[in-house]
Every structure is written in structure tokens, then in C-alpha cells.
Automatic annotation (TrEMBL):
A Pfam family this chain is assigned to: TetR_N
Protein name: HTH tetR-type domain-containing protein
Transcription found in the keyword field: yes
Domain HTH tetR-type: from-to ranges: 11-71
Record-linked InterPro entries: DesT_TetR_C, Homeodomain-like_sf, HTH-type_TetR-like_transc_reg, HTH_TetR
Organism the protein comes from: Actinoallomurus iriomotensis
High-level lineage: Bacteria, Bacillati, Actinomycetota, Actinomycetes, Streptosporangiales
Length: 214
């Protein structure tokens, strides 16, 4: 059994590799990133990649899982605010700010979700859907989600992701405006889903509670 100091060094080097890999995978496609440059950016010996992760794919999966776990913590934190509209906007604002602060990990996560690795896609898809489910639970939707509502919420989550990606790349739109775009888009999405299939959607009276000041 190693000493606390050696275990700390072990964790730190592993973390440095994950952070460096996240940055590089957010900048370029998986096949364009080499383990040599990951080790160089992390400032550790090349052999530590094999020691901690077996190979490049193992490291890649670790970066995706780390980003997903960080995001789950944010999603699980209860939103602040005096009512549903304020809570929704505060939750979206916190989500955007968190992803902006961890831009490399978020972009790596989104790039991975569009890739061909089924295990990675499963991690990203589950993370995105769990975020949608938390919104639905807050609106009183429990149990199986109707296919129409499922499709609507997946579309909204994708919309929110694209807003964040644009924000990270350009930073030329106020975050408050992004929050309003996302919140109003959710309201419109839920109202439209209900108009198509009343039995499948969220009650309009509940959706009205999400409408904040103009």
C-alpha cells in the first residue's frame, strides 16, 4: 500500500492526463490526437498513459466519463429562486456558466457524442437524457415519458447544447439573453407538444408558471 503522498501524486498525474486529453480532444478529432502530445501537454512521462488507462481509448473514455460526472453534479444541485420561472432561469444560467468555465471538457463531451464509439455515445446520450428527465420531474412528469414528449425534450436539450457551444466559441451574446432564449424555447416546446397530444404533454397551467418577465 502506498503512502498518502505517493497516492496523491498518482491521482494528480492521472488528473493531469485527463485534463490535457480533454483539451486536445476538444480541439481536434480523436484520430488526430496522439498520446505523445497528450503526455507532453500534461507534463508527465509517456508511459503513465498505459499505466493509468491501458491505451488511448481508455484515456478518451476517462475524459468523457469525468466530464459527464462533473455535469451530473451540477444537474443534481437544486435550483434557487422563489418560483418555477426563476428557478428554471437560474438553473440554466448556472449550467451555461459551469460549461463555459469548463469549456474544454464540455466541447470534448459534445464532440464525443457525435462520434462513432458506441460506448462513448451511450455515456453522452444518458447524460443528456437525465438532464431532460430532471426538468420533467420538476414539472410533475413521473413514470414513462410519452414518445412525443421524449422527442420534444431531446430536441430542447440539443438546442441548449448548441447555444452553449456558440457562447464558448464567440462570447458575443450576453448570458442573460442566452438564458432567456433557452427558457422561452422550453416553454414553446412544451406548449407545442401539448397542443399536438394533450395526453402526452405537460399541463398548460404548469407550463405557464415557467414564463418569467419579458
Amino acid at each position: 500500500m502506498g503512502s498518502p503522498r505517493s497516492e496523491a501524486r498518482h491521482t494528480d498525474r492521472r488528473g493531469r492526463l485527463i485534463r490535457a486529453a480533454s483539451q486536445l480532444f476538444s480541439e481536434r478529432a480523436y484520430d488526430e490526437v496522439t498520446t505523445t502530445e497528450i503526455a507532453a501537454r500534461a507534463g508527465v512521462a509517456y508511459g503513465l498513459i498505459a499505466h493509468h488507462f491501458s491505451n488511448k481509448r481508455g484515456l478518451y473514455l476517462a475524459t468523457i466519463q469525468a466530464a459527464a460526472e462533473d455535469l451530473q453534479v451540477v444537474q443534481a444541485t437544486p435550483p434557487e429562486g422563489d418560483g418555477p420561472a426563476e428557478q428554471l432561469r437560474n438553473a440554466i444560467d448556472r449550467h451555461i456558466a459551469y460549461m463555459d468555465h469548463r469549456a474544454a471538457g464540455f466541447l470534448a463531451l459534445m464532440r464525443a457524442g457525435n462520434g462513432s464509439d458506441p460506448e462513448v455515445r451511450a455515456i453522452v446520450e444518458d447524460l443528456r437524457w437525465q438532464g431532460a428527465v430532471r426538468v420533467l420531474h420538476a414539472l410533475g412528469v413521473d413514470g414513462p415519458v410519452h414518445p412525443l414528449l421524449r422527442a420534444a425534450m431531446r430536441g430542447w436539450v440539443g438546442y441548449l447544447d448548441e447555444l452553449i457551444i456558440d457562447h464558448i466559441r464567440h462570447h458575443d451574446v450576453d448570458r442573460a439573453d442566452l438564458v432567456r432564449l433557452a427558457a422561452d424555447a422550453l416553454v414553446t416546446t412544451l406548449r407545442t407538444a401539448y397542443s399536438i397530444a394533450p395526453g402526452a404533454g405537460v399541463d398548460p397551467a404548469t407550463v405557464d408558471l415557467l414564463t418569467g418577465p419579458a
